[in-house]
Design a protein that fits this description.
This protein is an alpha+beta fold. It is 28% helix and 28% strand. It has a domain at 42-134. A six-stranded antiparallel β-sheet has the order 1-2-3-6-5-4.
């Protein structure tokens, strides 16, 4: 009887620990302390990227609505700045891209498929993001809209 109770206890404990592991792996943004050295504000979900710009062959700016993120890439990604077909391949399913080596940029350079690893992610300030999103920061919009006449 003791052997059976011990086996059931171990089984229940194993299931509980497995559930916690799966639940923590499926959360989007990392919690504080899970991945030291990473800024949780620098995370973005590659599924919702709605635009990109490539200032040069080792930098990419991706946008999500009003938010923009600067991605530093490994080496020189030749042809990236002229590519029209670009994708983000996450290394972890259903996870945000938060820092180095979380994802790769995949693009076409002519007939060849190329890839570059992301080495850094930086969340841009609203003022910096405005340059890439084409939208004014929220504070600037409210002050300019409030200066108009009211009826």
């Amino acid at each position: 009887m003791k052997k059976h109770a011990l086996l059931v206890t171990l089984l229940v404990t194993g299931i509980a620990l497995g559930s916690l592991t799966v639940a923590s792996a499926m959360t989007g943004r990392p919690s504080d302390g899970v991945k030291p050295g990473r800024d949780p504000r620098a995370c973005f979900d590659p599924t919702f990227v709605d635009g990109f710009q490539t200032p040069d062959d080792h930098t990419m700016i991706v946008t999500q609505g009003r938010e923009a993120y600067k991605l530093s890439l490994t080496g020189v990604c030749i042809g990236l700045d002229t590519s029209f077909v670009v994708g983000i391949r996450s290394r972890y399913p259903m996870a945000d891209v938060c820092g180095p080596f979380d994802a790769d940029i995949i693009y076409r350079d002519g007939d060849r498929r190329q890839s570059c690893q992301i080495t850094a992610v930086k969340h841009l300030s609203p003022e910096e993001a405005a340059e890439y999103t084409g939208r004014k920061p929220a504070a600037a919009q409210t002050s300019s809209s409030s200066s108009g006449s009211k009826w």
